[in-house]
Structure formats: structure tokens, C-alpha cells
Design brief:
Helix content is 70%, strand content 0%. It has 13 helices and no strands. About 2% of the residues have low confidence.
Length: 295
């Protein structure tokens, strides 16, 4: 692999593609995961969002190149480190976006519109929204809602308000946790927040902590309500999803532990390497699949 290709791959953030599995959530919760044709369409939809998210990361790194050079960790990314030119990054981003939007539209025009909306939202985030406290987290949550909505439209299955609400709350919870961790680290350094943290200086620690705990509680309550909602029980023919609720609560509690760690990377990064969190997630997924598909 050439140095340019390697730099492009790193800048595309393939580790972050796991977030796009939310696009496949409607396939699972519509009990269609065993349908080969729909599964293939869902895989294509996930791939389209992976390409879109990588395009956004490339644009974001170009926009923040000067700030990232002053950051102790981000300065090692390919663009601020000089391993990838801004021109090459923008060219790759444009090609990825064009490919993704074309593929999304070929799946279904409605999915193409959602994909275009996701791209527009994230470009707005990179250029402006990320500097506005709470609105930045709100836009991240909306991005996850668009993933789930797009996944449902791509394979032609219904999407429930409960699934969209739980997705949005969970994404907001993770986003607030990331901000709380960043703010704590910045304040622990005993210096100004600096140009690398434009939005952080506008967050108040107590307000942010209250919002984090409040949204975490709302996420747990919303998921509990979803498992016992009339539509859920009727569709799946069981109240068995209640057995996944302890995993939901445990996952939220474990994430809060990761947020409060004084050192380390972002909690959204740490959770992917934290074995208690991942073991709980695997158990949650296994119980969901058993409950939904056992009949």
C-alpha cells in the first residue's frame, strides 16, 4: 500500500464505521435479518453511510487543520501531520460523497434523500454547528436518527417513533459524555481551553453534567417503555424484550464510569476497547436476537 493510500485510509477513520451499524437496526428489529435480499440491501446501505462518514471526516480535518496542529493528539492525524495534502483530502471526500449518494439513490430515491440530508447536516456541523454548545450534540443525535431512518427506507420496512427516539437519546447521551470528558481533561490541565476546543469554553460543567445524567435517565426510561409498548409486544408476540433492559442500564452506567476517567481517550473510543462494556453489549445483542427471532 502506498503512503498516500495509507494516509487516506487513516484519515477516513475506518474505526468509526461501527457507528453506521445503526443503519442495519431496522433490518434486525423488523425481523428481516434472515431475508437474503433485504440483508444485502442493508449491507449496501451501511456501506454508503460509511463512505459518507469518511467524506465528512476528511472535510472536517481540512477545516480544522490549524487547530489540530495545536492539539497534542490530533496533530498526528495525516492532514495536520503533512502526510496528506488538503487538496488530496478534498478530492477523495468529493469522490466518496458522489459514490455514496449515487449508490443510495439507486437503492431507493427516499434513501438517497436521507443520505443527502445526512451529508448536508454533517458539513454544516464541520463548518459551524460544532462551535455551538448543545446544538453540536443535537446535530450528532440527528445524524444517528437519519442513519436509522435511512436504513428503514433503504429496505422498505416501517420505522417506529420508539426506535428513532431511543436512537436519538442514546446518541445525545454519548455525545454529552464525550463533551463532559473533554471539558474535564481541559480543566485538569490548569490552562485555557484554547483554540482546539471552540465549543467547550461555552459549556458549564454543572449544566453539562446535569444534562448528561438527565439524558442518560431518559434513554433508559425510553428503552424500557419501548420494550413494553403495545406495538412492540404485538409485533414481536412477546414481552421478552424486558430481559434486555438490565443490559441497557448496565451499559449506561459503564459509560458514565468511562466518562469520569481522568485520563485516556474519548469515552466513545474507550468503550470499544473496554471489555466489560463490550461483553455487556454482546449479551444485549444476543438476548435481543433470541427474543425477536426465536419464533
Amino acid at each position: 500500500m502506498s503512503s498516500l493510500a495509507r494516509a487516506l485510509l487513516v484519515a477516513a477513520r475506518p474505526r468509526q464505521w461501527v457507528k453506521n451499524l445503526f443503519v442495519a437496526a431496522p433490518l434486525v428489529f423488523a425481523r428481516k435479518a434472515t431475508d437474503p435480499s433485504l440483508a444485502l440491501e442493508a449491507i449496501c446501505a451501511v456501506a454508503a453511510f460509511c463512505a459518507l462518514s469518511s467524506a465528512v471526516y476528511l472535510v472536517n480535518d481540512v477545516v480544522d487543520v490549524e487547530k489540530d496542529r495545536a492539539h497534542p493528539v490530533k496533530r498526528h492525524r495525516p492532514i495536520p501531520a503533512g502526510q496528506l495534502t488538503t487538496r488530496a483530502a478534498l478530492t477523495a471526500a468529493a469522490l466518496l460523497a458522489l459514490l455514496a449518494l449515487t449508490a443510495a439513490t439507486l437503492l431507493t430515491p427516499a434513501f438517497g434523500l436521507v443520505a443527502a440530508g445526512y451529508l448536508a447536516l454533517n458539513l454544516a456541523y464541520s463548518l459551524r454547528i460544532k462551535a455551538i454548545p448543545f446544538l453540536d450534540v443535537g446535530s450528532i443525535a440527528l445524524g444517528f436518527i437519519l442513519r436509522v431512518l435511512g436504513g428503514a427506507l433503504a429496505i422498505g420496512v416501517p420505522h417506529t417513533p420508539w426506535l428513532l427516539a431511543c436512537t436519538g437519546l442514546l446518541a445525545a447521551f454519548l455525545g454529552l459524555g464525550k463533551r463532559a470528558h473533554e471539558l474535564a481533561q481541559a480543566r485538569a490541565a490548569d490552562g485555557p481551553l484554547g483554540p482546539t476546543r471552540t465549543a467547550l469554553e461555552r459549556y458549564h460543567p454543572r449544566v453539562l453534567r446535569g444534562a448528561l445524567l438527565g439524558v442518560g435517565a431518559a434513554t433508559a426510561i425510553a428503552y424500557l417503555a419501548y420494550t413494553q409498548a403495545e406495538h412492540t409486544v404485538t409485533f414481536f408476540g412477546t414481552t421478552g424484550l424486558i430481559f434486555t433492559v438490565p443490559c441497557c442500564f448496565a451499559g449506561i452506567a459503564r459509560f458514565l464510569v468511562l466518562v469520569d476517567r481522568p485520563r485516556g481517550e474519548s469515552p466513545t473510543e474507550e468503550m470499544l476497547r473496554d471489555w466489560p462494556f463490550m461483553a455487556n453489549l454482546a449479551l444485549f445483542a444476543a438476548v435481543v436476537l433470541v427474543v425477536i427471532y426465536r419464533r
